[in-house]
Specification:
The protein contains five helices and nine strands. Strands 1, 2, 3, 4, 5, 6, 7, 8 and 9 form a nine-stranded mixed sheet that branches. Helix 1 packs antiparallel against helix 2. The longest helix is centred in the middle third of the chain and has 15 residues. The two termini are 33 Å apart.
Length: 201
């Protein structure tokens, strides 16, 4: 197993990996691969934290980080967010995702990134010492500020960089996708049937 930076030669393989891994999981089809594709040329992209896991010359995992912002009302502050992260379906629940997250979080800390947000399963991300962001009066755009919103979490490296007032985190605008654009992008990939499943969001 090798954890290494993503390079341009990996792009097609990574996008196929992301598409296949997310297909019909959270919604009919997927758009995470489209986000990954667009993110690389977006101002929010942190190229130095785009990494892959390679096993037997096959990319089985991939992770991205990018810069959104916290709106405190009277000021806006840059804030890093983890994701998308992908592990090949055949290699999930085998600690590959944990290794990729831990490796890149260590890099983020060395790069003096004060904290990292993530949107995901709290039972999974708690193992990396992510905590509910609402404990620090930070909330995800579009969510109820009266609820804990346990799926929106933060890992803090330098608590002095946090402010005591309430802030609203906004993802980079590259995460806002138009379904017709995704459908057009999908034409270059192998056909996969979109399904509506009870397990989807």
């Amino acid at each position: 197993m090798i954890i290494r930076p993503e390079n341009e030669k990996d792009y097609d393989e990574v996008e196929n990996l992301v598409r296949n891994s997310f297909w019909n999981i959270y919604r009919p089809g997927a758009y995470e691969h489209y986000i990954v594709h667009n993110l690389r040329n977006h101002e929010s992209f942190i190229a130095g934290l785009a990494y892959v896991i390679e096993l037997d010359d096959e990319i089985i995992g991939h992770i991205n980080y990018s810069v959104g912002f916290i709106d405190y009302g009277d000021e806006k502050v840059d804030a890093v967010v983890l994701g998308p992260i992908t592990i090949h379906k055949n290699y999930q629940n085998q600690s590959f995702g944990s290794k990729l997250i831990k490796y890149t979080l260590d890099l983020a800390q060395k790069d003096n990134i004060p904290f990292v947000f993530v949107i995901g399963d709290e039972n999974y991300y708690h193992r990396f010492n992510f905590k509910s962001a609402s404990q620090y009066n930070l909330y995800l755009e579009g969510t109820d500020h009266d609820d804990e919103c346990s799926f929106f979490m933060i890992k803090i490296f330098d608590e002095t960089k946090l402010k005591s007032k309430m802030g609203i985190f906004h993802n980079p605008d590259v995460f806002n996708v138009n379904q017709s654009d995704v459908d057009e992008f999908d034409k270059q990939f192998e056909f996969k049937e979109k399904l509506i499943l009870d397990s989807q969001l």
